[in-house]
Design brief:
By secondary structure, the chain is mainly α. It has a single domain, classed as Four Helix Bundle (Hemerythrin (Met), subunit A) (Up-down Bundle). It is about 85% helix and about 0% strand. Helix 1 runs antiparallel to helix 5. It is elongated, with a radius of gyration of 19 Å.
């Protein structure tokens, strides 16, 4: 059971970090929000990335990480494992509450507003928010991988 959980957890982390990187590439190469038709195609690609890779990878990472802690008793005493578990909370919030929410908001604006009435400044502001959230979640994800590889002792300081 433990090797399967480790494999799935690693696979989920690869998927999560890879999807965040692909998302960043799409935003980096994005057409200006003023060219609504091209920008709408970009948003469709981002929605597909999010639905098919980002959210499932995040779910696999979080669930297998918690199951691995429950299945392997020494992880319950390892502080690095608890740090990883606690880092999962802001990863979850950052992904669902910011990255996914901003992407859906931009898609709704594009769907519900006639092309001539879309304010490019609003879409640019949403992209800026996405960038901040993407870098935040990417830093947490890479930090989690570093903790898993490095496994620092994180001992209490002597009084």
């Amino acid at each position: 059971m433990r090797p399967l959980l480790k494999f799935l957890h690693s696979l989920g982390a690869v998927g999560l970090i890879g999807t965040l990187a692909a998302y960043m590439v799409l935003l980096w190469t994005a057409p200006p929000p003023a060219s609504v038709e091209e920008y709408t195609v970009l948003r469709g690609a981002i929605a597909s990335l999010s639905s098919w890779l980002l959210l499932p990878s995040l779910g696999v990472v979080l669930v297998t990480g918690l199951f691995a802690m429950a299945a392997h008793r020494p992880f319950l005493d390892a502080r690095w494992a608890w740090v990883k578990a606690y880092m999962g909370l802001p990863m979850f919030e950052g992904t669902l509450g910011h990255i996914e929410a901003q992407a859906q908001r931009a898609s709704r604006i594009l769907e519900n507003t006639p092309p001539g009435e879309i304010d490019p400044a609003v879409l640019q502001e949403l992209m800026h928010s996405e960038w901040i959230a993407l870098w935040f979640v990417m830093a947490l994800a890479v930090g989690n991988v570093a903790l898993a590889v490095w496994r620092p002792r994180l001992r209490k300081r002597p009084d």
